[in-house]
Specification:
With 95 residues, the chain is of the alpha+beta class. 44% of the residues lie in helices and 26% in strands. The protein contains 3 helices and 6 strands. A hairpin with a 4-residue loop joins strand 3 and strand 4. It is globular, with a radius of gyration of 13 Å.
């Protein structure tokens, strides 16, 4: 996965949220599935729901918000998160 890959929530997907201070539930109306997300994952998905973003832009936004210092470890974590969101149909790559 390239850090300049762009992602978005598919247009046909509507996400319904229930949020708490450190986690959230998100219901995908298209698949009928509910997902439990930690704060980082919920923030990432919210950012992609607001507007398409590159992996790099999303990583920069999250690193600033959550004050991550291990850039390499954090990059790997976000790449895995995006792959999982893609597998679950919550996001899609923009060609």
């Amino acid at each position: 996965m390239d850090v300049y890959s762009c992602w978005r929530v598919p247009r046909e997907v509507e996400l319904l949220w229930e949020k708490w201070p450190k986690d959230a539930l998100v219901f995908n109306t298209l698949s009928g599935e509910t997902h439990h997300l930690n704060d980082t994952a919920a923030t990432a998905l919210e950012e992609l729901e607001r507007a398409p973003q590159s992996t790099k832009t999303l990583m920069d936004t999250l690193a600033e918000k959550f004050e991550y210092e291990d850039a390499e470890g954090f990059m790997h974590q976000i790449q895995q998160l995006l792959e999982e969101f893609d597998r679950l149909g919550l996001i899609e790559p923009i060609a």
